[in-house]
Amino acid sequence: MVCPNLILLYVDNPLTSATLYRDLLGKEPTDYHPTFVSFTLESGLMIGLWSKHTAEPTALAT
Asked: Nearest CA to 43 among 32, 27, 31?
């Protein structure tokens, strides 16, 4: 059985997107950097917002 612990989303601007997710989730980010922001939920699941401009490997789908 697969039990994912990270959902990674490629976004245009992680710092701007963090504002939306902060309001949506009702919590502050656990990591906050110009190219990557993450949130950790109570279940342990993490949501990462990664800049599509600096991600390696390059994000091909949008």
From this structure: 27
d(CA 49, CA 59): 13
What CA–CA distance (Å, rounded) separates 48 from 21? 10
24: helix, strand or coil: helix
The pLDDT tens digits for 15-43 are: 999 999 999 999 999 999 999 999 999 99
Q: Where are the domains of the chain?
A: 6-51
Q: Residue 47 — very low, low, confident or very high, per pLDDT cuts 50/70/90? A: very high
Classify domain 6-51 at the CATH topology level.
3.30.720
In sequence order, what are the residues at sequence separation of 6 or more whose Cβ sits closer than 8 angstroms to the Cβ of residue 43? none
